[in-house]
Every structure is written in structure tokens, then in C-alpha cells.
Specification:
It is a single chain. Helix content is 64%, strand content 0%. α3 runs antiparallel to α4, α4 packs antiparallel against α6 and α5 crosses α8. The chain is elongated. The C terminus is likely disordered.
Length: 216
């Protein structure tokens, strides 16, 4: 979100198009927000943990704002490395579930909607999808760091090969998902649904559609 903020005002200052960076960055932020909303249905943070989150957010936003203004290559590379740590953390989570150290309970309803999971989906299914998101964030941020390092930050970001075949993807559903698996593509539409308080009705609609997700 901080990077999108910088790119937005850069576009206004220079009176030129951003060439697609802002949507990529804001969608990543929205996706991370839904990760938080999902895990809040699995565990309840204490007051101390909430206070630590507020403090960490204030410190990180300040640091990252300065870093991105001074050296966007460093800022994106740092984010890419942090996402690599997140991927490893979710891999450890999966291993703990497989060993039986952590219960593999049912997936929260919000996760089933967001990732279009089967009605009998479990926490393990959710972790697989979240880890896939983190892999995408890692690769995207390293790609953006490479572009800035090559002084190519003014051209459109390039994506993975599957994104180039968007015209062959199935039609988007009610939540804005345009292909199998859900994830980042439907974040904005699902956010609006949740804010309107229609999660229950949306769940029935999603179930009627019979769509399921798969992740590796």
C-alpha cells in the first residue's frame, strides 16, 4: 500500500500514466488484508498482540515510506525477501499439521468464499492457498526490484505466463474471480460483499455455483 501511495503521487506529479504498477500493489495489499481476516477466524489475538501490531505498523510504514522514496529497488527487494520468509513459515505450518502437532480443523467460511474452496475444506487447504499467494507476492516484488534496478520502473510490470492467457479464462463469477482457485483476483469484490454484511447470502450463492479451488 505504501508503494502504491508513492506511485500514485508520482503519477500525479509527473502528469503521466503509471503503466499498471498501482493496481498490482493495491491488490497485493488487499490480498494480505484477507489473509489477516481469515486467520482472525482461526485464532483470537490478545491485547498485547494487538498493541504490538499497531506499534509495528507505525514503525514499518515510516521506515518503508522513507525507503521507497529513496530506493524503490531496495524496498521491493526487502519485501521479496520477507515474502520468502512467509513462504517458509507456511511450509512449516503445513508440516506441523501433517505431523499432527496442529489440529487440521474446518476452514473458516470467509476462506471458503475467498478461495472458492469445497464445503469440507480444512485449515490445510487454506494454508496451501495462502502460501501460494505469498509465493506470488515474492516473485512480483523481486520482479519489480529488478525493473527498478534496470531503471525500467516506468513500463508496465510483466506477470506470470498464466496471466497472459486471461482471454481464455472462464468468466468471472459474482465475486470477481476470473479463473480457478480464487485468491487475489476477487479481493475487491469480496471486500464489498463483506462490508455490505451479506456474507451469509454470498456463501449460499457460492455454494450453489459448485466451484472449488486447488493449490499446490
Amino acid at each position: 500500500m505504501v508503494a502504491a501511495f508513492h506511485r500514485h503521487f508520482r503519477s500525479l506529479r509527473r502528469m503521466e500514466r503509471d503503466r499498471g504498477h498501482i493496481p498490482v500493489l493495491t491488490e497485493e495489499a488487499e490480498n494480505e488484508k484477507f489473509h489477516l481476516l481469515i486467520w482472525l477466524k482461526v485464532t483470537t489475538p490478545t491485547r498485547l498482540e494487538r498493541a504490538l501490531v499497531v506499534a509495528a505498523q507505525a514503525a514499518y510504514v515510516t521506515f518503508y515510506s522513507i525507503a521507497y522514496a529513496a530506493a524503490p529497488t531496495f524496498a521491493h527487494r526487502l519485501t521479496g525477501y520477507l515474502e520468502e520468509v512467509a513462504v517458509q513459515a507456511y511450509t512449516d505450518y503445513l508440516n506441523a499439521i501433517d505431523r499432527g502437532d496442529i489440529p487440521n480443523g474446518p476452514a473458516p467460511e470467509i476462506a471458503k468464499l475467498y478461495y472458492r474452496l469445497a464445503p469440507n475444506a480444512t485449515i490445510r487447504d487454506v494454508v496451501l492457498h495462502v502460501r501460494a499467494d505469498e509465493c506470488m507476492h515474492r516473485d512480483v516484488n523481486h520482479m519489480l526490484a529488478d525493473k527498478h534496478h534496470a531503471r525500467d520502473g516506468h513500463t508496465r510490470p510483466h506477470f506470470m505466463a498464466s496471466d497472459t492467457a486471461a482471454t481464455h479464462a472462464p468468466p468471472a463469477d459474482a465475486f470477481g474471480h476470473s479463473g480457478p482457485g480464487g485468491g487475489e483476483g476477487g479481493a475487491a469484490a469480496l471486500s464489498e460483499t463483506l462490508q455490505e454484511g451479506t456474507l451469509g447470502g454470498a456463501s449460499k450463492d457460492a455454494g450453489a455455483g459448485g466451484s472449488t479451488g486447488a493449490s499446490t
